[in-house]
Amino acid sequence: MLLAPSILAADLADLAAAVQLCEQGGADLVHLDVMDGHFVPNLTFGAPLVRALEHRTDVPLDVHLMVEEPGRLLDDYLDAGAAWVSFHWEASVHPDRLLARIRQAKSRAGLVLNPATPVEVLTDILPSCDYVLLMSVNPGFAGQQFLPYVLEKVRRLRDMIRQRGLGVKIEIDGGIGERTIRPAIAAGAEICVAGSAVFGAEDPVDAMRHLRQLAETESV
Which residues touch 87 (CB under 8 Å, ≥6 apart)? Predict the structure, then answer.
């Protein structure tokens, strides 16, 4: 399991410290939710911030573009140092082109599905993805409750990947914490984004280690 703490839930006035906590907690990725105020009703991290954080850490930056017309912004985030970049199926007209652009930049390319979007829409494009991010809350805000029906989507996607012998990873984001990380891993998720469960804890470093222990127990 790869753990990707979401710094949207951290102290936004001190994101450099949040990245340091991720390092101390053994995070595999640092997850950044980019919101444009249109595709989702919030506004967050621009490419200059990603560039600044990329200079502060060796932990790969996992950039999730929750934006309309992701192709307009894609190159800015790739140039800023995003190691993993995902964008929404629901926001893209030509996802093949965007996935190819991400891979050409030597970054990992992912597609994101909102909770109500069935995984079957990926049937033809799945081989072009390095990973698929399944939202387990409706995107736009931190701290929402996990939607249990997404676990069945994880299972169906896992089966699609296995049946075709693909190396596509499954990432899950939204409401991941002590009570949900083990069911998510059991269903087939391999990358877990955790925001409030980490940065809402009294000791974020300890919270990251505890989540990893829970996930590893499920994986045994």
Answer: 65, 67, 70, 74, 95, 98, 110, 111, 112
Residue 218 in this model has a pLDDT that exceeds 80: no
79 is catalytic: no
Contact 34, 65 (CB under 8 A): yes
d(CA 201, CA 205): 9
Tell which phi-psi region holds residue 106, choosing left (phi > 0), alpha (psi between -120 and 50) or beta: left
Whether 203 is a known active-site residue: answer: no
- d(C-alpha 2, C-alpha 212), whole Å: 8
* C-alpha distances in Å from residue 54, one per residue of 14, 63, 102, 109: 15, 11, 17, 18
Please, which pLDDT band fits residue 148 given cuts at 50, 70 and 90?
Answer: very high
Structural domain 2-219, CATH architecture: Alpha-Beta Barrel (3.20)
The per-residue pLDDT for range 53-77, each reduced to its tens digit, is 999 999 999 999 999 999 999 999 9
Q: Which of 11, 33, 79, 206 is catalytic?
A: 33
The domain limits of the chain are 2-219
Nearest to 154 by CA among 118, 195, 196, 193: 118
The answer to whether the Cα torsion of 65, 51, 26, 178 is positive or negative is negative
Q: Give this prediction's pTM.
A: 0.96
Report whether 184 contacts 173 (CB < 8 A).
no
Active-site position among 36, 62, 130, 173: 173
List the Cα angle 119/151/109 in 5-degree steps.
Answer: 45
Burial of 56 (0-12, 13-18, 19+ CB in 10 A): middle
